[in-house]
Specification:
The structure holds 2 protein chains of 2 kinds. By secondary structure, chain A is an alpha+beta fold. Helices cover 37% and strands 21% of the residues of chain A. A 7-stranded mixed beta sheet of chain A has the order 6-5-1-2-3-4-7. A 6-stranded antiparallel beta sheet of chain A has the order 8-9-10-11-13-12, sandwiched between helices. In chain A, a hairpin with a 2-residue loop joins β10 and β11. Chain A starts with a helix and ends with a helix. Chain B is built from 11 helices and 28 strands. In chain B, strands 8, 9, 10, 11, 12, 13, 24, 25, 26 and 27 form a 10-stranded mixed beta sheet that branches. In chain B, strands 1, 2, 3, 4, 5, 6, 7 and 28 form an 8-stranded antiparallel beta sheet that branches. In chain B, a hairpin with a 2-residue loop joins β4 and β5. In chain B, α6 packs across α11. The relative contact order of chain B is 0.21. The chains are: A alpha+beta, B alpha+beta. Chains A and B meet through β8, α6 and α9 of A and α8 of B.
Chain lengths: 386, 520
């Protein structure tokens, strides 16, 4: 056999070998080749996720059909784009020209959308414009899903029946955390299934005021799966009691310096009681107003709200006394004296409610009175939470 | 020292009059093998007394050092001490010092716990002092059946720290009395302290011929027309049809060959079942009767608590009080343990439910509602760590429905002397910050008034219980720790537990039930 002939036989044989080792979808198993639909996409945005059918790939945006709604997703807003059976092709808004051309051919309308086709498509889906996906719409959808998922828990007994249970104290600006032990252990976050519900006694009725999401983190970076900013999350690291009284929710840092190890990232969402400081703020200082049936001012003062929380009921007084005990570590005589001061100012706060200026004065007077009756070292410790 | 001598000493100790002297504080000699425990700890003594060290202890060689208060059997008198001989200790536990006193009052009206333990549990105490592989893991619930107490259930197994407080719902087999009274005896038969937060009776009324079972989230499911699976095979392909068809005491356990081959990367056993699906059915209820093996007990007691010895006191008392480490451990436990139920969707198995571990003492009946993903036939896979379960029955109910349960609050608590205890009832009435605390050998009776039901109505009762417990770190673990660090959740730890379980299972199973502390 001549060398030329051997080479001629070797090349097909090698190609056949390569062909036998090929991995990946065949046309029979490749979804876009088996029907009219475009390729399925999973797009991770900075504050949202989009999963649906790729209708068209425009120069600066993807047109995606999700739940019978046509979305326009700006290419620049996509952190990562995964195409079914093709893999991750968009990273940080960038895709190679070669892949762009290939993926465009796998969309439902590879030739693009003419104005007429665009109008007919919008009509077919009952829209007048493409729904532009942005951070704001992601948050709106998140809120809608959270509300839909927790509507039934406005009856606390329903929440109790499915496994939520109260943990920790009734925080003046948060209410009480009800935790679902199974949901809090899940690896993933679902807006419709928050692991924490926030209840507060409002005008005599246990009322759902918000929800919270929690995730175990080890490197300090909060989860990215919900459409919120990283700064919307805060961390818990200590014991429930430390977090309740010593660090969290009283203006101190949530992460103990020098302490390594896993921590819990927490995101509050005040979906059932408007929060003047924002939907995702950690504390909701409208809550003390709601507890007493007052409308919250737009520029709510935390000190006035804390005084109002004290006025609202024995829960507010018990929390403040426990906070002072835990942080200040007063002796028995000081504890009794502090309790008397708190009780006196509770009555004062009730008399001043809801006048914000007078409530602020009441709060300041309470701390002055406490300073006057405790030892300097106790006062020094208490200043951290004043 | 033989058992009689120990018993005599214990009796003498409980009978003698204590003379308290002033104590002198001596510097503690720190040696390489000493362990410092920063958590507040409580030492349970062989003579029934209790020593509380609020600022922790140092355990050096055969002595426990620390500023402690020793309480007598009746918890009436106390004296300050600075050291204890380790061989006078049954076990030690970390306990909480509550910051928020207002909402965390621990109630313990069932006093003289130490005396109960010493007198009633002497034989068990002796057996368990140096070989700590003894009965434990939860409160046990007994029904009164014509004067005989019959085990009904066990509560919140493996809830070994406050943050793991759990709610369990267990089906009761015995009916209410003719006037609707249901009495359940709650026992602590282990070297543990139980913190019981809440007890309530649930009732579901239904038709004759229907069965009511809790699902994996404690919600009642009413099932009927139970049928065995058409086929059931384990990992080796062994036909399990006969073993799993009926609740007859013939139970599945992992094949020894599979157990012996379990190692990191392949720690699981699985059962695959198929069953016909009724036309149009989009879901079915899978009914299981099962209990845990003692693999879990080995994991919790030997590996988690026993190996690190005294270091476990800080691990439970401090580390597991922190939300991050507690959730990390719980997530690992949930991923690895229990049972995962997956359904074939025509292409692959998809996990649809997870059943947490139920405990090794009592059989548990559960019904898991799962979707039918392949309309032609139902293919199920139950997967779990090798030999984690004893499975008596797997059945499929194509007809099921849900009904909310009626709630009967706790009507009364009776102590061991049949005296009504209103304080104990108050602490158990709601899932709040109040707990009833019991130690080994204690019991009480929970009474519920369910009233009468209309004629031709069947009733099924469930006991709902919520709480947690702390395991005593036994003397044997304190004196001979095997690990120099506290537990780290990992596949290696589970592999080690499986390995130890495989070697000791025969003797441990017999020993476990024989070392229940008698109650009085």
């Amino acid at each position: 056999m001549s060398g030329l002939m051997r080479r001629a036989l070797f090349i097909p044989a090698a190609l056949a070998t390569i062909g036998a080792c090929f991995h990946g979808p065949t046309p029979e198993r490749f979804q876009p080749a088996q029907g009219p639909k475009g390729i399925e996409v999973h797009l991770a945005l900075s504050r949202d996720r989009v999963r649906g059918e790729l209708l068209a790939f425009q120069d600066t945006a993807l047109i995606v059909l999700r739940d019978n709604q046509i979305l326009l997703v700006p290419l620049g807003s996509i952190r990562s784009g995964v195409f079914k059976q093709r893999g991750t092709l968009i990273e940080n808004g960038r895709i190679s020209q070669q892949e762009r051309t290939r993926i465009r051919l796998m969309s439902r309308f590879p030739a693009g959308l003419t104005p007429e086709l665009r109008a007919r498509l919008l009509t077919a889906y009952g829209q007048t414009e493409f729904q532009r996906v942005s951070a704001a719409s992601g948050l709106a959808e998140f809120t809608a899903r959270a509300r839909a998922g927790t509507e039934r828990f406005r009856d606390a007994e329903v929440a109790r029946a499915v496994g939520y249970r109260p943990v920790g104290p009734d925080f003046p600006g948060m209410g009480r955390h009800w935790i679902h032990p199974t949901l809090i252990l899940r690896d993933s976050l679902d807006p419709a299934q928050p692991p924490v519900l926030e209840y507060a006694d409002i005008t005599g009725r246990l009322t759902l005021v918000g929800v919270a999401y929690a995730a175990l983190v080890k490197d300090g970076a909060p989860p990215t799966s919900l459409p919120v900013q990283a700064s919307d999350w805060h961390f818990h690291q200590g014991t429930v009691e430390q977090e309740s009284f010593l660090r969290s929710h009283v203006g101190l840092g949530h992460v103990m310096p020098g302490v390594e190890g896993p921590r819990i990232a927490v995101l509050h969402a005040w979906i059932w009681l408007d929060n003047p400081d924002g939907l995702l703020a950690t504390d909701n200082w409208a809550l003390p107003y709601a507890r007493l049936g007052y409308p919250a001012p737009a520029d709510v003062s935390p000190d006035a709200a804390r005084a109002l929380a004290l006025a609202a009921g024995d829960g507010g007084r018990a929390y403040l006394e426990a906070l002072m005990r835990a942080v200040g570590q007063p002796d028995a005589a000081e504890t009794a004296a502090v309790a008397a001061v708190v009780a006196r100012h509770q009555a004062g706060a009730r008399a001043q409610a809801p006048n914000a200026t007078q409530l602020e004065q009441c709060w300041a007077a309470l701390w002055r009175d406490v300073q006057a009756i405790v030892r300097p070292e106790v006062w020094e410790r208490l200043q951290a939470v004043q | 020292m033989n058992h009689r001598v120990v018993l005599s000493l214990m009796v003498l100790a409980t009978a003698c009059i204590h003379t308290f002297r002033t104590v002198d504080v001596q510097p503690v000699e720190r040696t390489a093998d000493s362990v410092s425990v920063g958590s507040p700890v409580k030492a349970h003594m062989v003579d029934g007394s209790t020593v509380v060290f609020r600022d922790g202890v140092i355990i050096a060689r055969d002595t426990v050092w620390g500023a402690g208060n020793r309480y007598d059997l009746a918890l009436r008198d106390s004296t300050a001490i600075v050291s204890l001989a380790l061989d006078s200790v049954v076990g030690m536990e970390s306990f909480r010092t509550h910051v928020n006193q207002a909402s965390s009052i621990v109630v313990s009206t069932l006093s003289t716990a130490g005396a109960v333990l010493v007198v009633a549990g002497a034989a068990v105490l002796i057996a368990c002092l140096n070989n700590p592989k003894c009965f434990g893991s939860c409160p046990t619930y007994y029904a009164d059946s014509a004067g005989t107490h019959v085990l009904e259930a066990e509560g919140f197994s493996y809830s070994i720290a406050p943050l793991f407080e759990a709610r369990d719902v267990d089906r009761l087999r015995f009916p209410a009395a003719s006037d609707g009274t249901v009495r359940i005896e709650v026992r602590n038969e282990a070297f543990e302290t139980h913190y019981i937060n809440h007890l309530e009776l649930l009732e579901v009324r239904h038709a004759e011929g229907e069965f009511v079972l809790p699902d994996e989230q404690n919600r009642p499911v009413i099932v009927r027309d139970l049928a065995a699976a058409a086929a059931a095979r384990d990992r080796r392909g062994t036909d399990l049809g006969a073993i799993l068809a009926d609740p007859d005491g013939s139970v599945y356990r992992t094949d020894p060959e599979v157990l012996s081959r379990a190692r990191v990367g392949d720690l699981e056993d699985a059962i695959e079942l198929t069953a016909p699906v009724a036309a149009g059915a989009d879901s079915v209820a899978v009914v299981l009767r099962l209990r845990n093996s003692l693999l879990n007990t080995i994991l919790f007691y030997d590996i988690m608590l026993g190996d690190p010895g005294a270091r476990s006191l800080d691990w439970v008392g401090q580390r597991l009080e922190e939300v991050g480490p507690a959730v990390e451990l719980a997530q690992w436990y949930q991923r690895k343990m229990g049972m995962r139920i997956a359904v074939w969707d025509g292409d692959r198995y998809r996990e649809v439910a997870h059943l947490k571990d139920t405990g090794p003492v009592a059989w548990k009946d559960v019904a898991l509602v799962i979707p039918v993903l392949d309309r032609r036939t139902l293919r199920l896979r139950l997967s779990f760590p090798a030999d984690n379960w004893r499975i008596d029955r797997v059945a499929i109910a194509s007809h099921f429905r849900r009904e909310p349960a009626m709630v009967h609050p706790l009507a009364a608590v009776w102590d061991a002397a049949e005296q009504r205890d209103t304080t104990a009832r108050a602490s158990l009435l709601a899932a709040d910050g109040r707990y009833l605390e019991t130690t080994g050998g204690q019991r009480f009776t929970a009474e519920f008034q369910a009233g009468t039901a209309p004629a031709n109505t069947a009733r099924t009762f469930f006991l709902a219980s919520q709480g947690y417990y702390t395991e005593w770190v036994r003397r044997g673990w304190l004196t001979a720790p095997r690990a120099s660090r506290t537990f780290v959740p990992s596949d290696s730890a589970l592999s080690e537990a499986i390995s130890r379980w495989r070697i000791t299972q025969d003797t441990l199973e017999a020993r476990f039930m024989a070392t229940r502390i008698p109650v009085r």
